[in-house]
Write a structure and sequence with these properties.
- By secondary structure, the chain is an alpha+beta fold.
- It folds into 2 domains: 135 residues, Ribonuclease III domain (Ribonuclease iii, N-terminal Endonuclease Domain, Chain A); 66 residues, Double Stranded RNA Binding Domain (2-Layer Sandwich).
- It contains 11 helices and 5 strands.
- It has a 3-stranded antiparallel β-sheet.
- A hairpin with a 2-residue loop joins strand 4 and strand 5.
Length: 254
């Protein structure tokens, strides 16, 4: 999987992507991204694709919108991350049953956690976005950071297999994993209990958008409590609702 543009520059002896309108940042950005991820890419073009937001993608003539961006790698990275976290959880909590492991997994791969990890490692500065989106602060949006984090993991998987992806995930998620001495409460349940304890109406969930093909939909769902709203994205309605509840609980400091 690679971006279609001509490969003209070199770092580590490997070709890098060079767009005429964006000549300088590539080598520096890719070197920085390799340092962040702890992996030297045999195919830097795969890493560049992972770092490319759809606003900066340049699809080939006739290609679908979003082609050349990190969306395909995000799709793969989501699955790779889920596998690696599930593997890690089964090792760390050998006596835990499916229900507990599922709650832990949902938290560790949720959008807020992905975005926080991306911020912690410095990924925003390495992202390739359009000038307009950069001015609008897109590099700090949780959805963009979470997608880029998954895409980067997908890129590592395609470039070197599970081992580099596993090493990265276990290092980047170490603090979040260590904080899970007790299984996190289901976010929707926690938000409902938080509202009830304060005599507030029950949370109201709303589908804001549905994107993607029928076999792999992506949902954007909002939840509102006490005139404040959280938003979440997920591959299923339940996952998006959980992400929205986590977002809103974070706003309340709960």
């Amino acid at each position: 999987m690679a971006i279609r543009d001509t490969l003209v520059s070199f770092v580590h002896g490997h070709p890098l992507i060079d767009h005429p309108t964006q000549p300088a940042p590539h080598a520096q950005g890719l070197l920085r991204a390799e340092e962040i991820l702890g992996h030297r890419f045999a195919s830097p073009s795969v890493l560049w694709e992972a770092l490319t937001h759809r606003s900066a993608a340049r699809p080939a003539h006739g290609a679908r919108k979003g082609s050349g961006s990190n969306e395909r790698l995000e799709f793969v990275g989501d699955r790779v991350l889920g596998l690696l976290i599930a593997e890690w959880l089964s090792e760390r909590f050998p006596r835990a049953q499916e229900g507990e492991l599922g709650i832990r997994l949902a938290h560790l791969v949720s959008q807020p956690v992905l975005a926080a990890v991306a911020e912690d490692i410095g990924l925003p500065e390495a992202l390739n976005v359009s000038e307009g989106e950069a001015r609008a602060g897109v590099r700090r949006r949780a959805t963009v950071l979470a997608d880029a984090m998954e895409a980067a993991i997908g890129a590592m998987y395609f470039d070197g297999g599970l081992d580099p992806a596993r090493r990265f995930v276990r290092k980047a998620w170490a603090a979040v994993m260590s904080a899970q001495a007790e299984p996190p409460k289901d976010a929707k349940t926690a938000l409902q209990e938080w509202a009830q304890a304060r005599g507030l109406p029950l949370p109201g969930y709303q589908i804001e958008a549905r994107d993607g093909p029928p076999h792999a939909p992506v949902f954007v769902i909002s939840v509102t409590v006490d005139q404040r709203t959280g938003t979440g994205t997920g591959r299923s309605k339940r996952a998006a609702e959980q992400a929205a509840a986590i977002d809103l609980l974070g706003q309340f400091g709960a």
